[in-house]
Structures are given as structure tokens and as C-alpha cells.
Design a protein that fits this description.
Keywords: Acyltransferase, Transferase. Pfam families: Thiolase_C, Thiolase_N. InterPro entries: Thiolase (IPR002155), Thiolase-like (IPR016039), Thiolase_C (IPR020617), Thiolase_CS (IPR020613), Thiolase_N (IPR020616). It comes from Sphingobium rhizovicinum. The chain is α+β, with helices and mostly antiparallel strands. It has 13 helices and 12 strands. The strands form 2 sheets. Strands 1, 2, 3, 4, 5, 8, 9, 10, 11 and 12 form a 10-stranded mixed beta sheet that branches. A hairpin with a 3-residue loop joins β11 and β12. It starts with a strand and ends with a strand.
Length: 386
């Protein structure tokens, strides 16, 4: 079977909502990563066959063919097409899957899979509220869906709480997990673990090259003081992912492109899996998706050296660990979205960037990434570091 390879992987540092990247148009964030991928690989920009861009909140500055606008803001020539996709939090992970499938099929040879999201300038859910602002329509879920599932809307907050309740996680359990995420991120920054993967961005206030949301002074007492997101619940802003501005991307090639452009790959894509399940509890799907990925790839749990499971809420990776039986020491070794942020559509290739660089830095072989997604969907990607 034809192979797909990752040639370069890069990301911006994560900017806090209304923080260092608040003054940057999201197309410029995406363009910075695209330019870095091209420059670091040394490939002719005109050789890029396509840009597949993940973005969740496609409204405002992230509307009107957002992916194409990233191309126009970048160093790529006008001849490079683009498309914008939405698979909720897994949007850019799915962009990677589409890019890999394109080069494996031979219909394209060199594709950028990326994601960009400014949660400051295009607030989460702002596109969802358009029907209400216009005073028309029923919103995304017609009565037929509401009646079928017995809900008026699908809520990730309720899904995260339902998972915490199902697996018996207390508020203290999840706060302890969150604090550990920050501590791992602090250690990673101190060790320079992110230096190779981060694209420095020049803002009006100076050079931005370090994740802004990490809290080196975090404590259990501070986390315990936060209000819960739902009455009587245990999920808080402290044990959930941070709203973040950022962009990320990977350059994907087949063997023909490697030879033609004299490129050296940094990873090989081993498995691409996507599954879907219960849309109400919603965020539990990474568990069956991971099991499916092992079945399809022929790999076993012990074969995987590092795992990246998106920390949308602490209960998600905690439930995944409990159900899959993975070694916690191999999970999110540099911290996760609770500390480093979750720029929605950019998180998929952001996690892949961190995973590939960590595997190579530690001399490890296999890495697995998975992501819970709105609607009860989950992507899993397995890669081999080269």
C-alpha cells in the first residue's frame, strides 16, 4: 500500500483568549504556520497541491473560504487551492487524514494539513447563534433530532459531566489531573521541548513564542475555588481546556514527492481511523475509536510509546486511560489542552506536531493521537517517528 509521510510539523504558541494574539487576524495566524512549513522544508511553494484547513467557528473573520484566505495571506502562490473543513475539535486532525489519503491515492503528492482558530476574534458558538440573532430558523438541530434523542441541544459540558459521573471521577480527581497538566507543561517549557515546533510570531507587543496559558504557580487550593460549569457538577474552567488563539500544520507527502523534492520525512502515518457513537454523552468516543485503530493497524497497546489524548475536559483522558489501560506516564507527556490551550480547529495538527517532535526527541517509535469531537465522533491517528 502507498505510504504517507509527515515532512514538517509546526505550530504557533497558544495565546490566551484576549491575550498576546488577540490583535492578529486568524488568516495571518494560519499563514505564519504555512510559511514556516514551506521554509523549513525548502520545497518550492508552487509545488503544494492543496491546503486543507480545519476551523470550527466558520464565521466573521473565519468565513468566506477561510482556507483560501490563509493561502492568500501566505507566501504560497495563487495557484494553490484550499478547502476549509469542520469536524469540530478534530477538524485539523481530519485535515491530516484527508491529506494523507490524497497523497496515498496518488491524486496529489504534497499537501498541507493545518488548522487555525482565533477564539478571541471569532468567539466559540458565535456562528451557532446566527439564527437567533436573525430571528429565524430552529438552529442546528431540527425537531426530528430533538425528539429522537430527547434533548433540545447537544452539550459538550453535559457530556463531560456525564463521563465524570459514569467513571466515578470526583472534583478533586479532575483538579489533580489538571494541576499535573500544568506541571508537565512548565517542565516542558523549562527543558525547551517546544522550541523546534513553535513558530515565533511578531505581534505589536513583541515576539510571541511561548504558550501563554500555562500556570507555574497553580495549586489545588486555587482550582478548588473555581465555580462549576453546571449546578451540582464537578467540571470547572480549571479542569477543562483553555480558550485559545493559535494555528498549526503539517506538510504531508508521498514517496514520489519525497524523491522529486529531495525531502526527508520525520514521521510515517501508520493508521487513520474515525468512528462515531452516542451524540448525547458525545465525548466518550475516543475509547472505541482507539480500539478500532488497534484492530486495523495490528498494533497493540504496548507498542505505543507516547499518547496524545486531547484534554477538552479532564474527564476525557482520565476515562480513556481507565478504559484502555494505558500507562499514564506515556500520556500527554508535555501537558495538554488544560495547560497549553485548545484552539479548536487548530488542535488536531497542534497535538500531532507535539507528538512527532516528542517521539523524535526521546528516540521513541510509535505515537497515537485521539480527539473527542462534537456529535459523538473521534479521530485516531497512529504515526511512526523516523
Amino acid at each position: 500500500m502507498a505510504e504517507a509521510y509527515i515532512v514538517e510539523a509546526a505550530r504557533t504558541a497558544g495565546g490566551r483568549r484576549k491575550g498576546a494574539l488577540a490583535g492578529v487576524h486568524p488568516a495571518d495566524l494560519g499563514a505564519a504556520v504555512v510559511d514556516a512549513l514551506v521554509a523549513r522544508s525548502g520545497v518550492d511553494p508552487a509545488a503544494i497541491d492543496d491546503l486543507i484547513l480545519g476551523c470550527v467557528t466558520q464565521g466573521g473573520e473565519q468565513s468566506f473560504a477561510f482556507g483560501r484566505n490563509v493561502v492568500l495571506a501566505s507566501s504560497l502562490p495563487d495557484s494553490v487551492p484550499a478547502v476549509t473543513i469542520d469536524r469540530q475539535c478534530g477538524s485539523s486532525q481530519q485535515a491530516l487524514h484527508f491529506a494523507a489519503q490524497a497523497v496515498m491515492s496518488g491524486t496529489q503528492d504534497l499537501v498541507i494539513a493545518a488548522g487555525a482558530e482565533s477564539m478571541t476574534r471569532v468567539p466559540m458558538g458565535s456562528n451557532y447563534m446566527l439564527h437567533a440573532q436573525a430571528g429565524m430558523g430552529e438552529g442546528p438541530w431540527p425537531r426530528s433530532i430533538q425528539q429522537r434523542y430527547g434533548v433540545t441541544e447537544f452539550s459538550q459540558f453535559h457530556g463531560a459531566q456525564a463521563i465524570a459521573d459514569k467513571y466515578g471521577f470526583t472534583r478533586e480527581d479532575m483538579d489533580a489531573y489538571a494541576l499535573d497538566s500544568h506541571r508537565k507543561a512548565v517542565a516542558a517549557i523549562a527543558a525547551g521541548a517546544f522550541v523546534k515546533e513553535i513558530v515565533p510570531f511578531q505581534t505589536a507587543d513583541g515576539r510571541f513564542a511561548q504558550d501563554e496559558g500555562v500556570r507555574p504557580d497553580g495549586t489545588m487550593e486555587a482550582l478548588a475555588s473555581l465555580k462549576t460549569l453546571t449546578e451540582g457538577g464537578t467540571i470547572t474552567a480549571g479542569n477543562a481546556s483553555q480558550m485559545t488563539d493559535g494555528a498549526s500544520g503539517v506538510l504531508v507527502a508521498n514517496e514520489a514527492a519525497l524523491k522529486r523534492h529531495k525531502l526527508t520525512p520525520i514521521a510515517r502515518i501508520v493508521n487513520l481511523t474515525v468512528t462515531a457513537g452516542d451524540p448525547v454523552i458525545m465525548l466518550e468516543e475516543p475509547i472505541p475509536a482507539t480500539r478500532r485503530a488497534f484492530e486495523r493497524s495490528g498494533l497493540k497497546l504496548d507498542d505505543i510509546d507516547l499518547f496524545e489524548v486531547n484534554e477538552a475536559f479532564a474527564s476525557i483522558p482520565m476515562a480513556w486511560l481507565k478504559a484502555i489501560g494505558a500507562d499514564p506516564a506515556r500520556l500527554n507527556v508535555h501537558g495538554g489542552a488544560i495547560a497549553l490551550g485548545h484552539p479548536l480547529g487548530a488542535t488536531g495538527t497542534k497535538l500531532m506536531t507535539t507528538l512527532v517532535h516528542a517521539l523524535r526527541a526521546q528516540g521513541k517509535r510509535y505515537g497515537l493521537q485521539t480527539m473527542c469531537e462534537g456529535g459523538g465522533i473521534a479521530n485516531v491517528t497512529i504515526v511512526e517517528a523516523l
